[in-house]
Each structure stands twice: as C-alpha cells, then as structure tokens.
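Sequence in, structure out.
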Amino acid sequence: MTAHFLAALAVLGMLAAMVWGAYLNYRWMQRQAERSTTMQLVSTATMIERLTRLIDTRELSYQEQVFVRSLKEKVKTGRPTDLAGDEVDMLDEIHGRLFR
C-alpha cells in the first residue's frame, strides 16, 4: 500500500513540474509577443534622416559617417530606391543599434 502511495505521489510531482514548465513557457511567449508589437517598421528614408542627424557625433564611427553621407546624397538626388541589399542591411544594423 505504501509503495502505491509513493508511486502516486511521484506521478503527481512530475505532473506538477510539467504544469509549472508549461506555465513558464507560456509567460515567456507572452513577453516575446509583447516586445514584438512595440517594434515599429521604419521607412528607409526615415532611417537615413535619423542617421544624418548623428553625423559628426561620437555615436557613429568614421566609416559609418561616410556611409550615411553617401546615403544622404542618394536621397538628395532622389534615388533612395537604388540601394543595394547589403547597403540596406548595413543601414538597418546601424539604425537598430542606435534607435531600438
């Protein structure tokens, strides 16, 4: 009789641990969903405009300043859609580091 009682107690303990783990996973997923809704999509022109305000500050390295200046010239000439994929990736990386 005692062995059956201990076995039932062990099963209940494992069940409780599984429920607790499922609850923690559920809460983590909720926090991830809350974070992702606060992130907003920003247009390429807006990212370039924000970064051009940071030229000649310590927030951008020299290479980043040169890069942002070249993007600024493309926007000034009306060709922001002529950006290559790696330029957009670099722009997104710099903007994400400074504005998220």
